Amino acid sequence: MLKGKTAVVTGGTRGIGFAVVKKYLENGANVALAGSRQETVEKALSQLTEYKDRVMGICPDLCSPEEVAAAFASVKERFGSFDILANNAGISSRTSLYDYTVEEFSKILDLNLKAVFVCSQAAARLMKEQGGGVIINTSSMVSKNGQPSGCGYPATKFAVDGLTISLARELAKDQIRVNAVAPGVTRTDMVAALPKEMVDRISAGIPLGRPGEPEDIANAFLYLGSDMASYVTGIILRADGAAMN
Ligand code: NAD
Fold first, then answer.
1. Are 216 and 237 spatial neighbours (Cβ–Cβ below 8 Å)?
2. For a pocket test of ligand 1, which of 9, 10, 91 has the largest count of ligand atoms closer than 8 A to its C-beta?
3. Cα of 230 to ligand 1 centre, how many Å?
């Protein structure tokens, strides 16, 4: 479904991002996985040796326009185009408002929102130049109803939805589609860090009767990244088993 396309996946070293990287490679894309540390990038690449001609690692500070632009240019230089950006890197929080420091709030805003802006801008510049492309952001089911602690996390995901819909409208004239995937509870390290009772309680309320697997979410990224979604832009695609939070 993605033969000949080139994709960058931020936070591609593990969890949902790594599943997207694998799904894209299986479907013929060239992929650059972006991680926060060279060591984790190398570890992820070591699990993808069968695709070694079509995969590379990059490690820019996702909030630095200069580092991101240089890293994305290196991807275009290696593979010849820049077609899909999956903005997946993100961190979560459960901190109560009473304990939330400004530093912690800024940290989550930086990665979950500012980095999405910085990476989208750098990608859009390359995509416009080549006549089009696709940006896929990672929202969350909490972007609808919020959550009862860790207010910074849903705040960033509501903002990601706003950025997605606004950029879809702004970039349509450049043939750049912008959508988001909103996962429900998905079995990754992010969820492993939550108390078991909390995960059990959330899972019990999922109509499909199970938490999502990273591959379930990667399938949504595959659809939106492919030409199957050629007339789809500005949507927040829920992949949450119909969970209501
Ligand atoms: P994860 O913790 O397993 O992986 C997060 C990824 O982000 C890792 O690859 C990590 O290296 C990267 N990352 C973390 N800090 C970074 C930084 N400073 N710079 C660059 N990269 C950094 O998480 P996950 O569950 O796979 O989550 C991926 C995305 O899905 C996030 O945006 C998250 O908000 C969203 N999401 C996850 C769930 C879930 O239940 N797991 C639900 C809804 C939304």
1. no
2. 91
3. 27
Residue nearest (by alpha carbon) to ligand 1 atom 2: 190
Cite the active site residues: 153
Instruction: Note the pLDDT of residue 135.
Output: 99
Cα 121 to ligand 1 centroid, rounded to whole Å:
20
Give per-residue pLDDT as tens, 87-129.
999 999 999 999 999 999 999 999 999 999 999 999 999 999 9
Domain boundaries, the chain: 6-185+213-237
Percent of the chain with pLDDT over 70: 100
* Residue to mutate, 190, 202, 213, ligand 1, most ligand atoms under 8 Å from C-beta: 190
C-beta of 91 in contact with ligand 1 (< 6 A): yes
pLDDT tens for 139-188 read 999 999 899 999 999 999 999 999 999 999 999 999 999 999 999 999 99
Q: Does domain 6-185+213-237 have CATH number 3.40.50.720?
A: yes
Q: Is 185 touching ligand 1 by the criterion CB < 6 Å?
A: yes
Q: What is the pLDDT of residues 25-74, one digit of tens each?
A: 999 999 999 999 999 999 999 999 999 999 999 999 999 999 999 999 99
